[in-house]
Every structure is written in structure tokens, then in C-alpha cells.
Amino acid sequence: xxxxxxxxxxxxxxxxxxxxxxxxxxxxxxxxxxxxxxxxxxxxxxxxxxxxxxxxxxxxxxxxxxxxxxxxxxxxxxxxxxxxxxxxxxxxxxxxxxxxxxxxxxxxxxxxxxxxxxxxxxxxxxxxxxxxxxxxxxxxx
Length: 141
What we know:
Blueprint: H1 7-19, H2 31-38, H3 42-54, E1 58-64, E2 73-80, H4 82-100, H5 115-138
Antiparallel strand pairs: 1-2
């Protein structure tokens, strides 16, 4: 099954990769800082990170605020997982391979996944990105 990752989800991964100091729960980001940095609402961040979490790419820290009248879980931290970092490194390696084939390599954006490059990649190569993500997450060559 193909993983249908969104532009915002790719931007989240790019931001976490760009700023990560490690890849477990000791290296959490504040959700509001991530949302502000990439220009999305806290609600959109919760939605997008829950999808990424289900695929093992990010880890979420939630606080249960539920009571008898309602269910509520507040997102209080998130971090890129080792699998998420590995995915980004694989994408960077594949981008580097493709960029080296470009007629004028000096005019390309470079092969590092950042928020800016994630946006560029998303806008120009969504189909290839979705295929590569799907192949990597399902263990296909």
C-alpha cells in the first residue's frame, strides 16, 4: 500500500530532521514551536503528527486530560524517531544521486532535507516522493 504523505507532514519531517539533536524521547520538540516554525495551526500539527506517528516516523508525548464528560489528550512533545531519520537520510541519498545527474548541479537546491527543500520537493516531485516513501516503509526495493 502506498503511503500518502501530505505536504505539511513532509515539512514537519524536514523541520525535525533539520533541528534534531537526537532521535528518542529525550530530544523532544515543543509542539507550538514546530507549528510556528512551519506555519500551521496546533490542530493541524496534531492531525499530521498522529499520521506520522502511526507510521513510526515521529514519537508523540501526550497528556491525558480526559474526565467522565469528555476525552482529551494534549500533545506536549514530539520527536523524530530513528526510523524517521533513516527515511530522511535515504531520501537525501536518493536526491543526491538524482542531483548529480542534473545538467548543472550548481543550480540545484542541494540534497539536504530542510523545510525549504521539503516544500520544493513536494511541489515538484510528489509522485516520486510518495512512491519512495511507500517503498521504504513497506520494505520494497
